[in-house]
Amino acid sequence: MIPLPDTESRVRMLKVLFNQTKIEKLFECDYPLLGKLSLGMSLRDIRNWLALAQRQAATRAVAMGGSAAYSMTRDDLLNATPDAAMTA
User: Fold this and answer.
1) Using CA of residue 87, residue 31, residue 13, residue 74, what is the dihedral sign?
2) What is the pTM of this model?
3) Is residue 43 assigned to a domain?
4) Residues 6 or more apart whose Cβ sits within 8 Å of residue 52
5) Which of 6, 32, 65, 78 is most exposed, with minimal Cβ within 10 Å?
């Protein structure tokens, strides 16, 4: 059995994933919060959380005029429930 990642490992994973996606710049102070919010999550769960936030950002962009270009914001990520991502 592989143990779930600790907070430091989850933060590192989040930083790598954010570098690969369309997200507005996060501040270093955001990462400890995101590490806490992702407690109990695997890498797969974290990826699902990010994907859920991206879908919400795309939906918001379409609702605001159908722009194909969108940028996920910190609020999109914080409003995507980690619990919902874990069940996806």
Assistant:
1) positive
2) 0.76
3) yes
4) 80, 81, 84, 85, 88
5) 65
**Count of structural domains within the chain:** 1
Structure tokens at 67: 């722009």
CB 14 within 8 A of CB 46: yes
| Residue 13 placed within a domain | yes
Name the residue with tokens 């914080």: 78
pLDDT at residue 6 greater than cutoff 60: yes
Residue 1 included in any domain: no
Question: Which CATH number characterizes residue 80's domain?
Answer: 1.10.8.60
In sequence order, which residues have a C-beta less than 8 Å from that of residue 13 and are 6 or more positions away?
Answer: 5, 43, 46
Q: Is residue 42 part of a domain?
A: yes
Q: How long a stretch of residues is the chain?
A: 88
Helix (H, G, I), strand (E, B) or coil at 55: helix
